[in-house]
Amino acid sequence: MLAYITRRLVYGLVTLLALSMIVFSLLQASGGGPLDRLKLNPRMQDLIAQLTKDWGLDQPLWRQYLTWLWNYVTPNDFSPLWVPLVAIAIAAGVTFAIVKLVKYQWKGAAILAVWVLAVYGAVTNMTIRFNWGISFQGFGDVWDLVFSRVGATFRLGFTALAIALIIGIPLGIYQAIRQYSFFDQLGTMGAFLMFSTPIFIIGVGLQIILALYLEKWTGVKLFFVTGMNDPGYANLSLIQRIIDTIQHLALPAISIALISLAGYSRFQRASMLEVLHSDYLRTAKAKGLPRRKVVVKHALRNAMIPIVTLVSLDIAFMIGGAIITESIFGWPGVGRLYITAIAGIDYPVVMAIVMVIGIGIVAMNIIADILYGVMDPRVRYD
Amino acid sequence: MTQPLLRVTDLRTYFSTEEGVVRAVDGISFDLQPGERRGVVGESGSGKSVTAMSIMRLIEPPAGEIVTGRIEYKGANLLEMAEDEMQAVRGGQIAMIFQDPMTALNPVYTIGDQLMETITLHQKVSKREARDIAMQALADVQIPNPVARLEEYPHQFSGGMRQRVMIAMGLSCNPDILIADEPTTALDVTTQAKIMDLMLGLADERNTAVLLITHDLGVVAGFCDTIQVMYAGGIVESGSGDEIFHNPQHPYTWGLLGSMTRLDQAQQVRLHSIAGAPPSVIDLPVGCRFRPRCEFAQDICGRVLPPLVETGAGRSVACHFAEELDLKAIDVRHRETEAEEVIS
Amino acid sequence: MVLLIAFALVAAACSSDDGTGNETTTTTTVAPDTTTTAPPETTTTTEPKLEHPYGGEAIVADDQEPPTLNTFVPGGDNFIVSLIGNAYFVGVQKIDGYTLALIPDVVESLPTVSNGGVVVNDDGTMTVSYQIRDEAVWEDGTPISGDDFQFTLDTILNPDLPIDKTTYEDVVSSDAGAKTFTYTLAAPTAIYELLFGVILPKHQVEGSDFVNDWNDTMWLSGGPFKFDTWAKGEFVHLVRNDNYWGIDEETGQTLPYLDEVTFKFIPETESILNAFKAREVDAINPAPSTEIINTLQALEPEGARVEVLAGSIWEHVNFQFGPGRLDRNPNSCNDNYNMRLAVAQAIDKTVLTDEILAGQVAPLSSFVDAFSPTLSTKAWDQYSYDPAAAAASYAAAVAETGKECSVVFSTTSNNDGRVKMSELFVGMFEAAGIPYENDLEDSSLFFGETLDNGTWDFGEWAWVGGAGLAALISNYDLFDPEAPPPDGGNYYRWGTEDSSVIDDATARFAEVRDEMNATVDDQELVALIQEGENIIADNLVIIPLYARLATAAVWEDEIGNYKHNPTNGGHTWNIGYWYRVDLEG
Which residues of B touch A290 (CB under 8 A)? Predict the structure, then answer.
């Protein structure tokens, strides 16, 4: 198991290295430079020359890349000795907690929660920082910039994920159990409608229906079209704060959730149907198990296995933020920053975000595989 | 004759598909006596498995439905039983073993979990007692080192071992009836006989009646007291094992016997196969369902469906010419030349 | 402030993705001289001479978020920084949204030659003097002084700081008093008008790390509002500056009226419109399109007010006079006046504005029209749409040149308006009997190689203008016979060395331009500007078509005193005067 994880980590690092090279080359090849904006003004020559030198843009590309790479992995304000230790502690902790969670359910959840809190406390108190560079657009330090947006992205992402899971999974299960019923057909139609509708239409459509029209019909402002909190949030009471947060969070979360939900319900339905038609489920019924127990104990556990991968990858992408949704709803997350950075040809920020997403995907893949093995005894690590 | 343990009367199980209604089981009746070993033989699609599933009430609407009939177990009609009562019967009094042991066990739970689940479901025992029973059940089916193997997952067992587990699971609650649906088909030949012996031996010890479903006449021949032959949803012939084997009265049975590998015949002979394919159970022919493939068919066979008629003690045949034909006299391998003479 | 904003607008236009990207280059336009100014807007403020209520909040939405709030450093040139800065920056001048003229901000009056604020010295240097308003103070009550000006100049000129030092580096001496600031430039230039647009509070900023300390927060406000919070990715929140020294001349009340102002950043235009409809925001200025204008105008019965104005980006068709035109069209007769006249008479500008801009604005009579209508001689009005006359002019051109003269039109193919224009031209030239052909290119090619090499015959693109005389003067650089590309901006190659047109007009124009750059007297400048305008029009170097639209919308039943400013002043130029209508009575 440990050997397996180590090997996966090595593969992951190689993947990330390749990813960084590809993205770096693509950024260079895409034409245009971060200083093009200034070139429109003929009186900016000195400034351009100075910035070109400061940002190392006059260096050969391989040197720019290596400089970036070295800076990216070099921590500031922090003894480098600690980094691998923390990484190992996190990896081991995740593995251990997941194994415990699946084996012992509630006890495992408690262990996981304590461990997450401990790591959170450790990471936040250690003030680990990496030298991810300075934004070419003038946003300042990239590490600070990216992490100032992570909170908003997580708030939106986890809410959407929770909605999608809480509704999507049971929906898929119910559809599978009542295959070909009216409800099943309705669900199928709804899911395909969600799939085929561009997210932009869903987002703007929700704004129009749930914010504009609903307000017109009811006369009460239920949801906000944009933003994460009211500017006067700090002056609100606790109850008002909660309400304000929900009012702002609802629309973007729902619009992301709708699409994930459609995916989850379809996937869960398919995998549940496969299990429902399996021989071992017939065995379970022939044993005389009540229907509910057949579904909950024998079908669900098996049908959930493939979903794990799907959800894990979704979490990885969530770290990168919902690019379009965040833009539509004026949500101050990483995804929106990413768009701004690309538009502004802001290499350090683009690279930082791409790599954070890449790291997330590699990490979540490994976690998904471990989880997969724990849930399905047939899987072996060798 | 004692009161039958199980009496099936005029059972009809239909499936609705896009092409039309499939009459998988179409009006069959039979009895099963306590301790009896009854073989149900037929080609695939003959309705033998659906019969078993109907008895277990595992036919799921809306796709499949038991249209009419009675299945009386100890005098109580299973078809009218409440679901929770039926659950007590399933696995408890009537157990079932399925064809493919590779997929019949849930891959994510240990063997012990799955065995003990059945035991605690039907017997009022503590967890520890259930564990002991499970261990004994594994020992009974001659699985070595049962204590350790309780903790193992199905994928750690071979096919034969898994089928032993299935048998252990089926018999762990000492059921009155064990329905075995092609229990050895998926296993290799050397294991087949061992498993069959083991299963029937354990059934005998418990005085459990066995309904053995198979397409292989050879399997039932050696192991069953009574045999019923099914064709296209109906029973075409039933009787004792010896009778069916040595004196087939239905051309289909006669054909099946001819297609059988007989280990007692030393010389290599060409195996007979029944010409044609079984009819689609959607568009059943009028009259005798075997008529299109029957080499003795007459006009009447195309018009009138022959009823299952008792032709002797515990012996029934559904053929208009059951009396006239002397099938045992015809060597099926020379039928091309001799068939006409017999009819005339 | 204005200078910075002028570049900012270019940046804004270029970073927006509506296809304006490469299609604009910096030029500037004159704001009318204060003595000749009359408000050009027919829309006058509806406010009666009533007391305006204090309190309340206004929310302004924009699709861009500033990378930094420091307007001096890279990234601070973004237009949104100026829009927000209107609420707290203090400087010498700002642009009046009603007159589009430069008006004084922190100084008593704008220095000119006539009022003695600008003096051209005998040694050829020029001295500019500012008289700072007595009442002007920073938000902490510290008076705004000449030292603050001096500190601002020193900061800009600090060689270690990445700040544009243009013109400031020509300051040879300066002198700061308590409420005065005087500086001398090495040579006379009208650019002085645009200097010191933003002043730094010395007592606070001095000693700080100027590049890194002022990205996320703002220095002391000298304007109506002061910085409160910046929720990254969401909004910048400002609150009333109780020490603001400005007063509303009409009511005599101290400014500002509002307690709070929030700038919300919403990247998607569609969402901005929805937020506006939901009244989550009070004022917006989206990039105009027919669809957006229609959407907004549909809200007018509910209390919204939509302002569709001619903006500072002006589109024009133009002729290539260099040899490269023959690569594109061997039958090009651009060197023949009658040919150019035929083209001018063949084009129906009204149809163009009707079809492309849905008739929201009138065509331009001159490029000066776009920002300084009162100053314009409307020099192109001498040419009117007349297919018959065009046919006659064309016949004359053919006779004079002995060529089968024709027109090959090139512009950017990835701009819907221009594609539409090329389609309309087909019919117009056909009606005049002029052989015509479209040969459009992707903007990256057209604004790159094609424009640099002058390998086009008849072209079309836009320039960005700005307010102020200095800005307008720089427009004339575009026709300077002494400034061919790549270093100069005379892409038309009118009168340049390799030009097919080198005559008295080009010679005189070169003189006019030189004179313009040597004087700072506003009277003289206006005369030169008008002479230059007439030369370009009379010789048909270009034909101005129309200014792109500038749109803004406000919930008029909520915010009073709102007036869109289509120049680089921006729609928040008078944010201190805004008040809550719903708090009245």
Answer: 84, 87
